């Protein structure tokens, strides 16, 4: 088997410890490994999938409303299916849910824990402290709302792009959600500092994963219009990472939101 990028594999294992791995997210991760051309990034992404599967570190399947559903085919048959379906998608146009999802095996999860213990110094052991509640629940609500907006492509299209305001005097765009997480709080840059204040310990790792997608994008293109963010090929990785943060926060009683976030679908478009 061809040599794969060790850093890429480790990042996939760490992310896989938080949630299932989407093919589109694996593709987006190859941007940190060097190749610039979409065709080269696809080769690297497929190689990483092959490595995880044939080393027994992950299994392929689909994600349904009931959770992860493993394919019943052999490794060879599954990989042939992945190749066939992936090559049917134009280069660089992978979307969440396309081709395959991967779920770590016990062996993969063990390697992920080793990697986290080696490199994740940002949490500083806070995952072992269990605060009874967030000290500032309304600020936590703002974080949940911002994360929900970042995780919802339909909301982004309807509100950020088409300006279909859910209520009068409502305004929202990508900049507002990003600024709340990046500037108004330390949710992205130092999530561990908010444990017991606005975040819970098991939300630190997924929030750090969101920061790894979003912060470099903002540093690269700046605080631009929502349409520019959405059009960037790296945005799909931001959406997926935000969805994992949202799920973690809602599991912890973090103000569960409807599928389209705090803002309901308006009956008519305000004039």
Task: Characterise this structure.
The chain is of the alpha+beta class. The protein is 51% helix and 6% strand. It folds into two domains: 6-119, NMB0513-like; 126-251, no CATH class. The protein contains eleven helices and four strands; from the N terminus they run αβααββαβααααααα. The protein has a four-stranded antiparallel sheet. A hairpin with a 2-residue loop joins strand 2 and strand 3. Helix 1 (6-16) packs across helix 5 (106-119) and helix 9 (204-221) runs antiparallel to helix 11 (235-251). It is globular, with a radius of gyration of 19 Å. The chain starts with 5 loop residues before the first helix and ends in a 20-residue tail after the last helix.
Jot down its keywords:
2 domains, 271 residues, 51% helix, NMB0513-like, alpha+beta, disordered C terminus, 11 helices, 4 strands
> If helices are DSSP runs of H or I spanning 4 or more residues, what is the number of helices?
11
Structural class: alpha+beta
Percent in helix? 40-55%
Shape: globular
Largest sheet, in brief, is: 4 strands, antiparallel
* Poorly predicted runs: 120-133, 255-271
Give the ordered list of helices and strands: HEHHEEHEHHHHHHH
Report the strand count: 4
Radius of gyration: 19 Å
Count of all domains: 2
């Amino acid at each position: 088997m061809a040599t794969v990028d060790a850093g890429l594999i480790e990042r996939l294992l760490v992310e896989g410890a938080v949630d299932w791995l989407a093919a589109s997210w694996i593709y987006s991760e190859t941007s940190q490994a060097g190749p610039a051309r979409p065709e080269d990034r696809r080769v690297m992404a497929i190689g990483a999938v092959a490595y995880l599967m044939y080393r027994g570190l992950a299994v392929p399947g689909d994600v349904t409303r009931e959770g992860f559903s493993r394919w019943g085919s052999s490794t060879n048959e599954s990989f042939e299916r992945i190749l066939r379906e992936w090559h049917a998608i134009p280069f660089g146009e992978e979307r969440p849910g396309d081709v395959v999802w991967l779920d770590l095996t016990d062996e993969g999860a063990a390697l992920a824990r080793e990697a986290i213990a080696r490199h994740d110094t940002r949490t500083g052991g806070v995952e072992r402290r269990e605060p009874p509640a967030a000290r500032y629940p309304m600020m936590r609500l703002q974080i949940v709302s911002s994360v929900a907006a970042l995780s919802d492509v339909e909301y982004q299209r309807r509100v950020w792009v088409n300006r279909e305001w859910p209520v009068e005097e409502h305004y929202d765009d990508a900049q507002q959600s990003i600024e709340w997480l990046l500037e108004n709080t330390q949710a992205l840059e130092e999530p561990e500092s908010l444990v017991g204040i606005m975040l819970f310990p098991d939300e630190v790792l997924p929030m750090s994963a969101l920061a790894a997608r979003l912060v470099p994008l903002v540093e690269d293109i700046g605080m631009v219009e929502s349409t520019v963010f959405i059009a960037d090929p790296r945005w799909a990785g931001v959406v997926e990472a935000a969805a994992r943060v949202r799920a973690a926060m809602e599991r912890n009683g973090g103000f569960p939101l409807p599928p389209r976030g705090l803002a309901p679908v308006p009956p008519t478009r305000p004039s």
